[in-house]
Amino acid sequence: MGNQSVLCPVCQGVLPASGRDSYTTLRGRLIVTNGYCGGGCEERRAEAEQTRQMARPVAPMQQQVQQPGAQVPPARVAPALRAVR
Ligand SMILES: [Zn+2]
User: Where is this region: Disordered (predicted)?
Assistant: First the structure.
Protein backbone atom coordinates (compact mmCIF):
# COMPACT_ATOMS: atom_id res chain seq x y z
CA MET A 1 0.00 0.00 0.00
CA GLY A 2 1.18 3.50 -0.74
CA ASN A 3 2.89 2.61 -3.99
CA GLN A 4 0.22 4.20 -6.16
CA SER A 5 0.65 7.70 -4.75
CA VAL A 6 4.40 7.51 -5.27
CA LEU A 7 4.40 6.03 -8.76
CA CYS A 8 3.23 7.68 -11.95
CA PRO A 9 0.15 5.77 -13.13
CA VAL A 10 1.28 6.04 -16.76
CA CYS A 11 5.00 5.23 -16.86
CA GLN A 12 5.29 3.65 -13.40
CA GLY A 13 8.18 5.99 -12.68
CA VAL A 14 8.62 7.60 -9.29
CA LEU A 15 6.98 10.99 -9.11
CA PRO A 16 8.92 13.96 -7.71
CA ALA A 17 8.73 14.08 -3.95
CA SER A 18 6.04 16.35 -2.61
CA GLY A 19 7.24 16.44 0.96
CA ARG A 20 9.47 14.97 3.58
CA ASP A 21 7.10 12.04 3.99
CA SER A 22 7.84 10.97 0.44
CA TYR A 23 11.47 10.15 1.18
CA THR A 24 11.04 6.59 2.35
CA THR A 25 13.02 3.42 1.93
CA LEU A 26 10.29 2.10 -0.32
CA ARG A 27 10.52 5.16 -2.52
CA GLY A 28 14.28 4.81 -2.77
CA ARG A 29 13.89 1.22 -3.84
CA LEU A 30 11.28 2.16 -6.44
CA ILE A 31 13.59 4.80 -7.89
CA VAL A 32 16.19 2.09 -8.42
CA THR A 33 13.76 -0.35 -10.03
CA ASN A 34 11.44 2.01 -11.93
CA GLY A 35 13.41 5.21 -12.28
CA TYR A 36 11.93 8.69 -12.15
CA CYS A 37 8.85 9.92 -13.96
CA GLY A 38 9.91 12.41 -16.61
CA GLY A 39 6.62 14.27 -16.41
CA GLY A 40 4.04 15.02 -19.10
CA CYS A 41 2.98 11.38 -19.15
CA GLU A 42 -0.75 12.09 -19.24
CA GLU A 43 -0.31 14.31 -22.29
CA ARG A 44 1.86 11.77 -24.03
CA ARG A 45 -0.64 9.01 -23.34
CA ALA A 46 -3.49 11.10 -24.74
CA GLU A 47 -1.45 11.75 -27.87
CA ALA A 48 -0.63 8.08 -28.28
CA GLU A 49 -4.27 7.12 -27.97
CA GLN A 50 -5.24 9.67 -30.61
CA THR A 51 -2.64 8.33 -33.01
CA ARG A 52 -3.78 4.78 -32.40
CA GLN A 53 -7.37 5.65 -33.23
CA MET A 54 -6.41 7.50 -36.43
CA ALA A 55 -4.09 4.80 -37.74
CA ARG A 56 -6.40 1.84 -37.52
CA PRO A 57 -4.70 -1.17 -39.02
CA VAL A 58 -6.62 -2.65 -41.94
CA ALA A 59 -6.28 -6.38 -42.48
CA PRO A 60 -3.13 -6.59 -44.63
CA MET A 61 -4.04 -9.97 -46.12
CA GLN A 62 -7.29 -8.69 -47.64
CA GLN A 63 -5.57 -5.61 -49.04
CA GLN A 64 -3.04 -7.77 -50.85
CA VAL A 65 -5.75 -9.89 -52.46
CA GLN A 66 -7.81 -6.91 -53.54
CA GLN A 67 -4.88 -5.09 -55.14
CA PRO A 68 -5.55 -5.11 -58.91
CA GLY A 69 -1.87 -5.27 -59.88
CA ALA A 70 -0.95 -7.89 -57.29
CA GLN A 71 0.99 -10.74 -58.86
CA VAL A 72 -0.19 -13.35 -56.40
CA PRO A 73 -1.34 -16.50 -58.17
CA PRO A 74 -4.88 -17.53 -57.09
CA ALA A 75 -3.65 -21.02 -56.28
CA ARG A 76 -1.47 -19.57 -53.52
CA VAL A 77 -4.32 -17.58 -51.96
CA ALA A 78 -7.08 -20.17 -52.11
CA PRO A 79 -5.69 -22.68 -49.58
CA ALA A 80 -5.31 -19.98 -46.94
CA LEU A 81 -8.90 -18.85 -47.39
CA ARG A 82 -10.17 -22.43 -47.12
CA ALA A 83 -8.18 -22.96 -43.94
CA VAL A 84 -9.92 -19.98 -42.30
CA ARG A 85 -13.35 -21.42 -43.07
ZN1 LIG B 1 5.23 9.27 -15.71
Answer: 49-85
Q: Are 38 and 13 in contact (CB under 8 A)?
A: yes
Residue 8's nearest CA partner among 19, 49, 48, 17 is: 17
Q: Which residues in the chain come in under a pLDDT of 50? A: 1
Ligand 1 centroid, distance to 62 Cα (angstroms): 39
For residue range 69-82, what is the model confidence (pLDDT) as tens digits? 666 666 665 565 56
From ligand 1's centre to the CA of 7, what distance in Å? 8
Domain assignment present for 47: yes
Within-domain flag for 60: no
- 3-state secondary structure (DSSP) of residue 55: coil
pTM beyond 0.85: the answer is no
End-to-end CA distance of the chain: 50
